[in-house]
Amino acid sequence: MDDEYSCCQGSPCSKRRQNSVYIPHRTFEFSSDLFGGFQAYIDIRRESTIGDIVSSAVSQLCQSFQRLRLMELVSRVRKAKFHIHDVKMADILVSPVEKVYYICDHC
């Protein structure tokens, strides 16, 4: 096992690289007073726009709260206006897998 990428064994992000294979997942972390720190792992091949990425991340956040039956938090997620600042889809597509992008709701 390659120690350089052993930090996330078993996580959905699969940061391990084998034979320079392209890894399509990127990490998107919520930067928010209430939801800050939650990380969504998004397969960027399935998303066409930044808005699609935000929607997928919000969906993961809601699903996590629903599994825990935290319906008030689901309601608050649905009311929030999430967005990603100063990044283009093309930048995300060619970014290193280790890069974390932040989704905020406080602007």
Question: Can you characterise this structure?
Answer:
It is a single chain. With 107 residues, the chain is α+β, with helices and mostly antiparallel strands. The chain has one domain: Ubiquitin-like (UB roll) (Roll). The protein is 31% helix and 16% strand. The protein has three helices and three strands, in the order ββαααβ. The protein has helices at residues 50-67, 71-79, 89-94; strands at residues 25-31, 39-43, 100-104. It has a three-stranded mixed sheet, with helices on one face. A hairpin with a 7-residue loop joins strand 1 and strand 2 (39-43). Helix 1 (50-67) packs antiparallel against helix 2. The relative contact order is 0.21.
* Class derived from helix and strand content: alpha+beta
State the major sheet.
3 strands, mixed
Number of beta strands: 3
Strand content: 15-25%
- State the helix count: 3
What would the average pLDDT be, to the nearest integer? 86
CATH class: Alpha Beta
First-last Cα distance: 42 Å
Shape: globular
Q: What's the helix-strand series?
A: EEHHHE
Please identify, by name, the CATH architecture: Roll
What Rg do the Cα atoms give?
A: 15 Å
Quick structural overview:
This protein is an alpha+beta fold and 107 residues long. The protein contains three helices and three strands; from the N terminus they run ββαααβ. A hairpin with a 7-residue loop joins strand 1 and strand 2.
